[in-house]
């Protein structure tokens, strides 16, 4: 009987140590697509999380960029192209197109 109890205690210890050390299973990163259509950034997500991926898609016949005002990212998008970007820090990031400054948006990123 004591042997069984000790086996249970021993099997509990590794799980407890992992949890105590902060090794929680990582949340799976989400992927979002932001299309550029008719000179506008369409469907910018309300909230992103660090580690998420943004797939930028330029459906226009003009070259565009997705450029952070703080210089944190600058995605070049020739006509009918795609580029991916991993979100690497939390915060609020205003962005715009360098060629068409009226095109703008904001990424809200949580940890």
From TrEMBL:
Residues 1-29 form the signal peptide. PANTHER family: BLL1555 PROTEIN. It comes from Rhizobium setariae. InterPro entries: Cupredoxin, EfeO_Cupredoxin, ET_Amicyanin. Residues 18-109 form the EfeO-type cupredoxin-like domain. SUPFAM superfamilies: Cupredoxins. It comes from the Bacteria. This is Cupredoxin domain-containing protein. Keywords: Signal. The keyword Signal applies. It holds the Pfam family Cupredoxin_1.
